[in-house]
């Protein structure tokens, strides 16, 4: 299965739109990332982000903090 970085796709789409005279503004990075991931999956490509690249983009939480937060949310979810 092929993989592709959804952040790279977002950057490339932004550049394509700018070249076409459109000034794109990302209102929600989360929505942009979800949309890029859905587009990639619909084309049979698995969205994959290198962990170091993800952290360099500004994620201030360590993977342990994120994992702990997800585990806590799972425990609180109704059965």
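-> sequence recovered:
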């Amino acid at each position: 299965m092929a993989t592709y970085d959804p952040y790279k796709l977002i950057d490339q789409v932004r550049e394509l739109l700018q070249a076409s005279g459109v000034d794109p503004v990302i209102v929600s990075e989360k929505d942009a990332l979800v949309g890029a991931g859905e587009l990639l999956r619909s084309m049979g490509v698995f969205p994959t982000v290198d962990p170091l690249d993800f952290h360099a983009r500004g994620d201030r939480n360590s993977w342990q903090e994120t994992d702990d937060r997800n585990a806590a949310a799972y425990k609180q979810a109704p059965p």
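The chain has one domain: 2-76.
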